[in-house]
Amino acid sequence: MVKKQLLKIVEEFGSPIYVYDAEKIVSQYNRLTDAFKDVKQLKINYAVKALSNISILKLFKTLGSGIDTVSIQEVQLGLAAGFLPEQIIFTPNGVSLDEIEEATKLGVQINIDNLSILEQFGTKHPQVPVCIRINPHVMAGGNSNISVGHIDSKFGISIHQIPHLLRIVENTKMTINGIHMHTGSDILDIDVFLYASEILFETAKQFKNLEFVDFGSGFKVPYKPGDIETNIEELGKKLSEKFNAFCKEYGKDLTLAFEPGKFLVSESGSFLTKVNAVKQTTSTVFAQVDSGFNHLIRPMFYGSHHEIVNISNPNGRERFYTVVGYICETDTFGNNRRINEINEGDILCFKNAGAYCFSMSSNYNSRFRPAEVLWYNKKAHLIRKRETFDDIIKNQIDIDFTSKKDKVLVG
Q1: Architecture of domain 266-380
Q2: Cβ atoms 40, 19 nearer than 8 A
Q3: What is the pLDDT of residues 226-263, one digit of tens each?
Q4: DSSP secondary-structure letter at 365?
Q5: Is 356 flagged in the annotation as binding?
Q6: What's the rounded Cα separation, in Å, for the pair 113 and 135?
Q7: Active-site residue set
Q8: 329 is in an annotated binding site
């Protein structure tokens, strides 16, 4: 999308606002499927948690994608978007057996990462095939909060617990139809990924009724000009060779599955904010915008980098700015960034705002969550209205403290 289009969207729908480019989503999806074209059976399950707007889910459905869900609500959202139960995999962590059974009733593929839950589920529902999530004990990912395959991770069943797992399967007579791993996000070294795949293949050999092997995702995208990213084409070539060789040894053509989120939607997203004030202190020039970490928490939470561009003055002289929000707390989007000269009223564009941005937003400070727009077929489509005050209070219950019947107890 060009700056002129983004400015028109702000003019029409206001700020702050999230904008997603459908063309970029489609190109990323095609890039991934092309990288693994040598595999006979490939399944892409979009990770709903990255960006869960129902219009985005429907777009993925048109591409032939399935979806990866981590909560019963995401399962329900996927069904509402038109996905068939068999197109949905449910990969929760730390949920109750009740929630897993609820998903089972809806007919989706279950993925379990806990020996206790596996035994309970297998005892009650031995007829339901399940996938198991393995922890390969491989450290991968760009941040400790998103590295989930290491030995201290809460995710997955340790490869050292495979004997326990096999005993549960034997005792319950349940069927394991899939095996899964996810080592972390922002993976750069494909050799680490390939090493983990060897562990997964060795584990998979111990299960005779597999239908698919799921390698999760975690592919890194570029966050700034010249930034490095996962070489998905090289990974596709090397992993496809290993997978095809494994299928030959296994004696059956299995499905190779992935569950990308960030890789598919991150670069499609732009977050647009208006500059409320430019504030000069003794050492810093602050650009204060009409948003905060209530709308985009990743820089404060993960230390993540989002390129910030002044689309109102793209040819202005570059100066150094610290871009901050309006939350009553330290609320910094970027420190000492070189940005074209900023004036009050300018529109700043935060790039790579498609993944884990709106989906992690909140009403902190009782602020409204922003609108969302999908740029599709050269037209801006509003896919979520901006919240209003009614949305803030609709689930709150107002107690009448003046009533004689409801005395307020003190002390």
Answers
A1: Beta Barrel (2.40)
A2: no
A3: 898 999 999 999 999 999 999 999 999 999 999 999 99
A4: G
A5: yes
A6: 9
A7: 328
A8: yes
